[in-house]
Structure formats: structure tokens, C-alpha cells
Design a protein that fits this description.
With 453 residues, the chain is α/β, with parallel strands linked by helices. The protein is built from 18 helices and 13 strands. Among the domains are: 152 residues, NAD(P)-binding Rossmann-like Domain (Rossmann fold), CATH 3.40.50; 97 residues, no CATH class. The protein starts with a strand and ends in a 9-residue tail after the last helix. 46% of the residues are buried.
Length: 453
């Protein structure tokens, strides 16, 4: 098997992916193509991959290049986890809108930050897919790059490459609700649908029974009603082993939306509130230093990850497969499991981002949605969700209706269409101010926006 990792210099992604491959002997003798425009990061990852191969007896062929066309030929699997402009561009996505009063906890999907990142990333991902058309037309592109929805849609619309967007967000929401309820995840099941970073759990069950009453009681308990769980405890065997000290995490925006709309959104306030910026005060009242919080965490953690991987790559510290695999509880796990489910015809269920071809009846066909799907030797088979609840449709319809406009803005280098897209974003409260902000953001990022020059 040949696997190409584009954006291989990502210290938060590639090392854990390599760890997963190293733990599965089916990848013995595989060819790994590593691509990154940052030569220093690429060299570190390449050294690390060769060390893993040597010490684990995997006999990997490691190909590394700053030019993806050098390594794409005959690939079966291609992954993309890139960041055009890196943390510097992300910082502009946060700081320039902030000067106009736009608070963004993450700024990589919706709102002004999502627009800026989309303008940078869409043309690059489409160009990658066009190279795949020429060099490995039968390969599947697994995209992890944000804004995931619009990028995945652009690749599927503008090229013949099969592109699947992957994000662990739904599982994070599911895990969170299990902790809130104090119920082991293995006893639960969910149905979820929507778009990336704004999915909705529409059905929640424990031991096959409706579990919304448990969640209601658990949230009431967290809000200060100590007897809330007593009202439901006798109805559910799963609550007999509930921890004495309930989970105290809080997601005020997600909780409020659930209380009013009847479905639970995810994957947490940081992402969800950017689809509902009118409720930002709820988050600000519960947390400090919200604006750019995700960026600050990455600015702190990335140098530490770089140092760790450098030490392992240059053999200055002993190699430990267990330590190396610590990052595996993230998106990488999903990709590894999907590949195994496909190769072994297992039919396991995952949450994937793919074009809507009848899975959801009351959202437009062709738009990329986040839906459950089984994966077997025949490919990816999305669930038939039918109609999503009416209460959650307006935001989803509004968002997916702007995707093609953002794609056109990015591919054409059209400032007018970029402004039009932001004017339709709930962040925009004033047309002239919104237009000024978008143009300032484009001007600041022109070095990464060749179509706009």
C-alpha cells in the first residue's frame, strides 16, 4: 500500500498517524510519501518515519519531498492536514476581525476566520486533487484541513477525486454527554447529523432506551439541583454505577441550544458559538480569554511537540512505541479504523463528511454533510437519516447555502464574492463594516492568496 501524507510536517497529526501504522503489521512494506513545504519539519518527520520503520522491522519505503507530484504517483490513500500560512495566518484571522469587535474562540470554520482560512486553503486542496487526477486517480483523499466542509465540497465539485472529510467532533460530543450523564459509552448509542463543527445529536439512548431524561436531569444537577438525578435513577440500570462526583464540565451555549431546540449540538461551545455569534455573551460569561483561545493553545503546544519529535527523530532520546502513540485519541484514530474496516470488510460505523446524496431529505443535494456511515470493502455507505428536525434546519440551510459562494470567491480571487459571503454570515452586523474587514483581511494575507493579487 502507498499512503501519501500532505502536510506531513504537522507535529500534531503525522507522528500519531505513523504510530498507528507502526502498530498494525498489515502496513509492513508500505510506501509512505511525506510532503511538506517546510523543509525543516519535513526532514524531522522523515527521520522519525525511518527510525520507526527500522526499529519496528516494518521495511517502509519513505519518500519525502516539498513537491507533492514527486510522491503522489500510484498512491491508494492521500491525507491532507495543511495550514497555509501556519500560525501567522491564523493569528491574522483572529486579530483583524477582533479589531472590529468580532470574538472568535477558534476561527477556523465559520465567521471571518473561517472565511479567511477557506480563501487560503480551497485553491490548494483543489490543486492537490487535480494532481491526484493525473497521478493517482483511484486514490481516496481523506481531508482533515479546515474549514473542512467547504474544502471537501470544493474538491468533490471541481474534481473527479473522491474526497472524504474526517473530524473526531461527533465522538467528542458523544464522549462529553456520556461523562455528563455518568454512563459508560459502550451502553449508549446516538444518531447525529449536520455539518462539521455544527452537528446535532438527534437521538440519544442508554441500553436502547431514550436517554434524554437522563441528560436533562444531569444538566439540572450541574445547574444546582442536587436531587435531579434521583428522579430518573430507578428507570435506568446504567445509572447504578454512576460516579459519586458528577462531571462538572460546562458548555453553556450548547446546553442552552439543546434546552430550546431539542437536539444537542457539538463539538463544544468554541465551535458551535461561531455559528451562533448572537449568543457569544453566554460563553463570555462562563469563561475568560475566549477570543483566540484555540490559537493560543496551539502557539504554546506546537513548540513542545516539535522538540519532542525532534528528539525522537535524531535518536537523542530512546524510542518508545507506547509514548509515541499517546496522540492516537484524535482524528488519526478514525482514519486508521476506517482503513481497517474497509480492508477487512468489517462494516463499522463512523461519522464522515461527504456530499449529500439522499441521506438528509430536507437539506440540499450535493452539499457536504456530517453523517454516520458504515465502511466495508464496498466503500462508504451513509445512513438514511431522512428529515432532520425542523428546529435545527435554519442555521444549517443558511450555512450550506453560502458554500458555493465561498468556493467561487477563493477560486476566482473575487473580493466581491468574499464580501458577499461574509455579509450573509451572522457575524456581520453592518454591511460597510463587514466589507472593510474582509478587504483588510485579504490585504493582510495576500502573500498566501495568489488568486487575489
Amino acid at each position: 500500500m502507498k499512503i501519501v501524507i500532505i502536510g506531513a510536517g504537522s507535529m500534531a497529526f503525522t507522528p500519531a498517524l505513523l504510530a498507528g501504522f507502526s502498530h498494525d503489521r498489515r502496513y509492513t512494506g508500505a510506501t509512505l510519501g511525506l510532503v511538506d513545504v517546510n523543509e525543516e519539519s519535513l526532514e524531522i518527520i522523515s527521520q522519525l518515519a525511518r527510525r520507526v520503520s527500522s526499529e519496528q522491522g516494518l521495511d517502509w519505503t519513505v519518500q519525502a519531498s516539498t513537491d507533492r507530484r514527486d510522491v503522489l504517483a500510484d498512491a491508494q490513500v492521500v491525507t491532507t492536514a495543511i495550514g497555509v500560512g501556519g500560525l501567522d495566518a491564523w493569528a491574522l484571522d483572529i486579530s483583524i476581525p477582533a479589531s472590529y469587535g468580532f470574538v472568535q474562540p477558534v476561527g477556523d470554520t465559520a465567521g471571518p476566520g473561517g472565511l479567511g482560512r477557506g480563501l487560503r486553503h480551497i485553491p490548494v486542496l483543489v490543486d492537490i486533487a487535480r494532481d491526484m487526477e493525473a497521478l493517482c486517480p483511484n486514490a481516496t483523499l481523506y481531508n482533515f484541513t479546515n474549514p473542512l466542509t467547504v474544502i471537501t465540497q470544493a474538491v468533490n465539485e471541481l474534481t473527479s477525486v473522491r474526497c472524504i472529510g474526517l473530524c473526531i467532533g461527533v465522538d467528542l460530543t458523544w464522549n462529553h454527554l456520556c461523562r455528563v450523564m455518568g454512563v459508560d459509552k459502550s451502553r449508549t448509542s446516538i444518531v447525529a447529523g449536520g455539518i462539521n463543527h455544527c452537528h446535532w445529536i438527534t437521538d440519544l439512548r442508554v441500553d436502547g432506551e431514550d436517554a434524554w431524561p437522563i441528560l436533562d436531569a444531569a444538566l439540572d444537577e450541574m445547574a444546582g439541583d442536587p436531587s435531579a438525578m434521583d428522579r430518573v435513577r430507578g428507570r435506568y440500570a446504567a445509572l447504578s454505577e454512576r460516579p459519586q462526583e458528577p462531571f462538572r464540565g460546562t458548555e453553556p451555549v450548547c446546553t442552552a441550544l439543546y434546552r430550546w431546540l431539542g437536539c444537542y449540538p457539538g463539538p463544544g461551545d468554541g465551535h458551535v458559538v461561531e455559528f451562533f455569534p448572537q449568543f457569544m455573551d453566554l460563553m463570555l460569561s462562563a469563561r475568560e480569554n475566549v477570543d483566540g483561545g484555540a490559537l493560543r493553545r496551539c502557539q504554546k503546544s506546537y513548540p513542545e511537540l516539535m522538540q519532542r519529535m525532534t528528539s525522537m527523530a535524531d535518536q537523542s532520546v530512546p524510542f518508545s512505541a507506547d509514548v509515541f502513540a499517546e496522540e492516537l485519541a484524535w482524528e488519526h484514530t478514525q482514519l486508521l479504523d476506517i482503513l481497517v474496516s474497509e480492508q477487512d470488510n468489517l462494516g463499522k460505523m463512523f461519522f464522515v463528511n461527504i456530499p449529500n446524496k439522499g441521506s438528509v431529505h430536507n437539506l440540499p443535494g450535493g452539499v457536504v454533510l456530517e453523517v454516520p456511515a458504515t465502511v466495508d470493502a464496498g466503500g462508504v455507505h451513509p445512513f438514511a437519516l431522512g428529515d432532520l428536525p425542523a428546529a435545527i434546519l435554519p442555521t444549517l440551510i443558511h450555512r450550506v447555502s453560502s458554500l458555493d459562494l465561498i468556493i467561487e470567491a477563493a477560486m476566482e480571487g473575487s473580493r466581491q464574492k468574499a464580501v458577499q459571503a461574509f455579509i450573509n454570515d451572522p457575524y456581520c452586523k453592518d454591511v460597510s463594516t463587514g466589507a472593510k474587514m474582509v478587504n483588510e483581511l485579504i490585504d493582510a494575507e495576500l502573500r498566501w492568496l495568489p488568486a487575489f493579487r
